[in-house]
Q: What sequence folds into this?
């Protein structure tokens, strides 16, 4: 059975410390922090591309973010008034995910003694 790129998407997200969550439908998505709430990355375009869902509250805000996504290299797939989906290749995915605040911060390296078993 074809997984439509789900295995590669999960492996890429874990390897690059992306915020991987389960969506409402049970599929894996990558979500951002507060500033870009309403955006998420999803699989389903095969092993070459990933989808980006973007939604904003007004048409003016969405048209601004739409032009910025096009400049970053996203390929529009379905565009409406205040929401749309885009296709992103894996080659530029990490840079776009970083700009959209979808990458976790690096670990601090703190290893407290009270967490370790003796």
A:
């Amino acid at each position: 059975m074809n997984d439509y790129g789900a295995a590669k998407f999960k492996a890429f997200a874990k390897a690059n410390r992306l915020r991987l969550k389960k969506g409402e439908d049970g599929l894996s998505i990558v979500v951002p922090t507060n500033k870009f709430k309403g955006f998420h990355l999803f699989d389903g375009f095969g092993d070459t591309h990933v989808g980006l869902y973007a939604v904003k509250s007004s048409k003016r805000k969405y048209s601004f973010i739409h032009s910025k996504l096009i400049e970053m290299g996203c390929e529009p797939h379905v565009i409406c008034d205040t929401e749309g989906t885009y296709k992103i290749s894996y080659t530029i995915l990490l840079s776009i995910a970083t700009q959209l605040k979808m990458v976790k911060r690096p670990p601090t390296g703190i290893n407290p003694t009270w967490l370790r078993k003796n």
